[in-house]
Amino acid sequence: MKSIALLLTLIIGFGTVSMAQTKKELQKVTINTPTVQCETCKKKIEDFLSKEDGVETVVVDYKRKQTKVTFHSDRTNIENIKTAIANVGYDADDIAANEESYQKLPKCCKKPEDGGGMKKN
């Protein structure tokens, strides 16, 4: 009976330690995404990044032109995340959008100077 209680205590202890280590590895960053225009942009980035290894949460605020990402720092890093955003077709901080991906975006997601953007009422 004592060995079962000791075994359960050890299991709970190891579980608590491993959970504490996981929380330390989570990082939150805010990336400027100045070329996001609309809900379609938001959905494209959130869907793409949610499939990236190590990314926990993604929230795109197209009105503020920011993307907030929570990720596991032992599985990815901020540069990989910015590159992923650029590969979808959007600028991310100092990384320019992949031109080929940008050209494939719907018209509403393109920059106003390229004839895109949302129509003003």
Summarize the structure.
The chain has four helices and three strands; from the N terminus they run αβαββαα. It is of the alpha+beta class. The radius of gyration is 20 Å and the shape is elongated.
Please tell me about this protein's structure.
- The structure is a single chain.
- The chain is of the alpha+beta class and 121 residues long.
- It has one domain: 2-Layer Sandwich (Alpha-Beta Plaits).
- Helix content is 44%, strand content 17%.
- It has 4 helices and 3 strands.
- The protein has a 3-stranded antiparallel sheet with strand order 1-3-2.
- A hairpin with a 4-residue loop joins strand 2 and strand 3.
- The termini are far apart.
What topology does this entry show?
Elements: H1 2-25, E1 26-32, H2 39-50, E2 55-61, E3 66-72, H3 78-88, H4 99-104
Antiparallel strand pairs: 1-3, 2-3
Classified by CATH, the class is: Alpha Beta
Strand order across the largest sheet: 1-3-2
Structural class: alpha+beta
In CATH, the topology is named Alpha-Beta Plaits
Q: Average pLDDT value? A: 87
SSE order in H/E notation? HEHEEHH
- Largest sheet data: 3 strands, antiparallel
Low-pLDDT ranges: none
Number of strands: 3
Radius of gyration (Å): 20 Å
Q: Helical percent range?
A: 40-55%
Estimate the strand proportion: 15-25%
Tertiary shape: elongated
Distance between the termini: 74 Å
Helices, by number, come to 4
Q: Could you say how many structural domains there are in total?
A: 1
